[in-house]
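Researcher: Let's do a round of design. I'm pasting the structure tokens now; please hold your answer until I've finished.
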């Protein structure tokens, strides 16, 4: 089998997962019966998909009911059950963007086999004021699992797995490992994955989601740096330390972080960052100033576009300030 689509399922019902499976069933110019399979793992929930529903599709679906592990552990379980040449992780409430999505993937497989394929993907969202449906394109993304395909043996040979301690912002940890541990990563500008809107999705309609979970983003980076150190890839470890230091610094200069009504989130995040910085300062100190300047400019340019204000204090003063939160 060429490709298996791996889906963690928790509270999603037949009705919720139906658009995804339907969008696989209409794929054109691929042999669904022999070349495409779906693996769904129930993450310890008592909401089960029905046998009759799963049997109605023209491709093989394997459904496993397992103990609760969280999304990262369940994705690992999906991968452990897989046997195909390539795997693609999908969320149960998303779908393929078009009917030629798998043809695009298979064409890339056949033309020049890859370790990982990163494609643009489309996000379905809502206008913040009018609430009209809006579709936005994500290019060269490392934040979300969407629209990425991996050669299964590449993941096995390099022991690339989801970090089970991460349940929020867990995607970037896995995505960065897949992209940084191979020179055979391809990019597809053609989107074939749709990140669907769902009213229950907290991460997109809670305006304070990033404020509340930026600690988890630091956790994800911390785990990633540990992984690179364990693998002896010190340049990668240093790169991501420098990245998160500047990212956190400039992020704190966005209006929502300066707003006093969000002080509790800022204080908690600065405390978490202080612990991170104390742990990673030896790596930070080893990076030449020229490399730090490049990283600073790249991060600052992106966050200015997102509404960052002028720096309230210098990064040196900010680092001195936050380090006082953690005693030696």
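Researcher: That's everything. Go ahead.
Model: Designed sequence:
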């Amino acid at each position: 089998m060429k490709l298996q689509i791996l889906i963690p399922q928790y509270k999603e019902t037949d009705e919720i997962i139906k658009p995804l499976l339907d969008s696989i069933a209409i794929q054109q110019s691929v042999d669904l019966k022999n070349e495409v399979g779906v693996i769904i793992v129930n993450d310890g929930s008592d909401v089960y998909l029905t046998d009759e529903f799963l049997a109605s599709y023209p491709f093989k679906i394997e459904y496993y009911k397992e103990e609760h592990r969280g999304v990262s552990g369940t994705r690992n379980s999906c991968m452990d059950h897989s046997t195909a040449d390539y795997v693609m992780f999908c969320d149960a409430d998303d779908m393929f963007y078009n009917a030629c999505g798998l043809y695009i993937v298979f064409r890339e497989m056949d033309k020049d086999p890859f370790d990982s394929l990163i494609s643009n993907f489309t996000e379905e969202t809502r206008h913040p004021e009018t609430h009209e449906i809006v579709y936005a394109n994500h290019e060269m993304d490392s934040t979300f699992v969407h629209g990425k395909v991996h050669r299964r043996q590449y993941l096995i040979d390099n022991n690339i797995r989801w970090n089970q301690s991460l349940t929020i912002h867990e995607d970037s940890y896995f995505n960065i490992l897949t992209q940084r541990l191979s020179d055979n990563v391809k990019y597809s500008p053609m989107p074939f994955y749709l990140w669907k809107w769902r009213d229950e999705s907290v991460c997109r309609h809670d305006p304070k989601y990033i404020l509340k979970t930026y600690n988890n983003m630091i956790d994800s980076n911390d785990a990633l740096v540990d992984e690179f150190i364990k693998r002896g890839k010190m340049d990668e470890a240093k790169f991501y330390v420098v990245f998160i230091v500047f990212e956190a610094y400039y992020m704190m200069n966005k209006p929502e972080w300066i707003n006093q009504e969000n002080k509790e989130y800022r204080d908690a995040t600065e405390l978490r960052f202080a612990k991170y910085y104390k742990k990673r300062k030896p790596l930070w100190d080893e990076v030449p100033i020229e490399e730090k300047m490049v990283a600073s400019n790249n991060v600052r340019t992106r966050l200015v576009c997102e509404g960052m204000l002028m720096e309230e204090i210098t990064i040196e003063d900010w680092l001195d300030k936050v380090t006082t939160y953690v005693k030696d």
